[in-house]
Amino acid sequence: MIRFFNTLSRKLEPFRPLDPGKVKLYTCGPTVYDYAHIGNFRAYIFEDLLKRFLKFMDYEVIQVMNITDVDDKTIKGAQSEGLELEDYTKKYIQAFFEDLESLNIDKADYYPRATEHILDMAKMITGLMNKGFAYRQDGSIYFRISKFPNYGRLSGMDLAKLKPGQRTEADEYEKESVQDFALWKTKKEGEPFWETDIGAGRPGWHIECSVMSSKYLGQTFDIHCGGVDNIFPHHENEIAQSEAYSGKKFVNYWLHCRHLIVDGEKMSKSKGNQYTLRELLEKKHDPAALRLLLLATHYRKMLNFTFAGLRQAEASLQRIRDFIYELENRKFKKEENKDIPKLVEKTRKKFIEGLSNDLNISVSLTALFEMIRRVNINLAKEKLGPKNAEELLSLIYSFDKVLALLPEKEKTSLSVDIEEKIKAREKARAEKNYELADKIRQELLESGVVLEDTKDGVRWKIKKSK
Ligand SMILES: [Zn+2]
Predict the structure, then answer these.
(1) What's 240's domain CATH number?
(2) How far does the centroid of ligand 1 lie from the alpha carbon of residue 234, in Å?
(3) How far is the CA of 269 from the centre of ligand 1 (A)?
């Protein structure tokens, strides 16, 4: 059974999706006013692990990740560079998708953009006004939190501190200043605006996620994720807007990951310790190692990023790669080691147990590396057979559906198909049927596999497609 820690109940809860076998997942996406930094990617990698694990456990996952391309930050950024909002956000949207690819993050099913859903937002705001949950003040429209008794449940806020009648236009504010927040901000000089039924203006940040989640996942869905800094006010406000509007429970499971700090300190631009992914890649760090580093700490623990830690992750990754290389390239004797199937089963069980327990990745990774250690001992003693190797490889590649650390090249190398074709070609050559041998080589080449005849036999590699 899979269990998650639900921020809403502050408890570990068994996971039961609304539709058995199907998970609807909403993950707050980037605000595209800058390049995403490693702290942002900690959250995206945690969400990727969650999604990949659910898929590994045979759930169908429908994921929505919004792109916030209009809010206080993007507008400020565009103004300071003298650009139209769209021209300003364009380059960060593109960079974001490139970064996802570098880190091998599985693509969401939908990436809705706020600016493409303004009319839907106006519609929800109208509904909230009709029900008395929203009111207009000086042209802008605010959510009346005193009308929503459940306000504060997610963040555990003390409603006694609530100051009715006070309101804020800012998208982000402190917990201490809980107050009515802007759903719609009336048109201002120098700011982008949209003409709608509720007037000319632009949406507040929080309404964006309420609208885009329900549009693609329905008014009630299974999991909503983000970083802990999203709990207040962003997610608290999403719940208020969505539940006030629909009269239904918004989300069943809220999962939040903790911060990333750098060298024990809070990340900040002024300290120069706020690394973007591209900065680390420019320094020739391996994106897969960074992925492993961001994965390897349980998502509800603080992650302290250090370059020593990154080098350690690089070494761990190398251990996995060396292990695969050995299993794929060594000539094994016929005799099988009877202990290996038991080890494989035990490791698989532990791996799943760890992740099933609120994504406790440490348990899963420990099981994997312990298996590698034990098999390496057997490798050194030449106590491994070809079937053993095959079974071990197939386990590692199945784990990699969750971990996503291995490049495509290594993944496809398992393909029995290729191995069989190579054998057929060798047989043809031994029988001096060079025509057939060439034909097989050509077939493999067309599917991107290059053969190399070496002194030690045939080796093969995947031809880079780019
Ligand atoms: Zn959001």
Answers:
(1) 3.40.50.620
(2) 7
(3) 23
pLDDT more than 90, % of the chain = 80
Compute, in angstroms, the gap from residue 277 CA to the centroid of ligand 1.
Answer: 22
How far, in Å, from the CA of 205 to the mean position of ligand 1? 8
Q: Would 267 be classed as within a structural domain?
A: no
31 and 162 in one domain? yes
Q: State in Å: Cα 62 to ligand 1 middle.
A: 17
Answer yes or no: do 204 and 291 share one domain.
no
- Domain assignment present for residue 64? The answer is yes
Q: What is the pLDDT of residue 414?
A: 47
CA 423 / ligand 1 centre spacing (Å)? 53
User: What is the per-residue pLDDT for 366?
Assistant: 98
CA of 75 to the centre of ligand 1 (A): 17
State the CATH number of the domain containing residue 336. Answer: 1.10.730.10
Residue 363 in any domain: the answer is yes
CA–centroid distance, residue 204 to ligand 1 (Å): 11
pLDDT in tens, 322-344: 999 999 999 998 899 999 999 99
pLDDT tens digits, residue range 223-274?
Answer: 999 999 999 999 999 999 999 999 999 999 999 999 999 999 999 888 889 9
Q: How far is the CA of 70 from the centre of ligand 1 (A)?
A: 12
235 Cα: distance to centroid of ligand 1 (angstroms) = 7
| Cα 397 to ligand 1 centroid, rounded to whole Å | 33
Q: How far is the centre of ligand 1, averaged over its atoms, from the C-alpha of 334 (Å)?
A: 56
In which domain, by residue range, is 441 found? 416-462
Domain count across the chain: 3
pLDDT in tens, 185-204: 999 999 999 999 999 999 99
Residues 388, 421: one domain? Answer: no
Tens digit of each residue's pLDDT (9 = 90 or more) over 52-66: 999 999 999 999 999
Of the residues 379, 394, 412, the one at which a domain ends: 412
CA of 110 to the centre of ligand 1 (A): 14
Q: How far is the CA of 66 from the centre of ligand 1 (A)?
A: 7
Q: How far apart are the CA of 324 and the centre of ligand 1, in A?
A: 40
What are the tens digits of pLDDT across the range 281-299? 999 999 999 999 999 999 9
Q: Around 1, how many Cα atoms within 13 Å sit in the side-chain half-sphere?
A: 7
432 and 371 fall within a common domain: no
Residue 189 half-sphere exposure toward CB, CA atoms < 13 A: 0
Q: Which residues of the chain have pLDDT under 50?
A: 410-414, 464-466
The predicted pLDDT at position 42 comes to 97
Structure tokens at 393: 């490889």
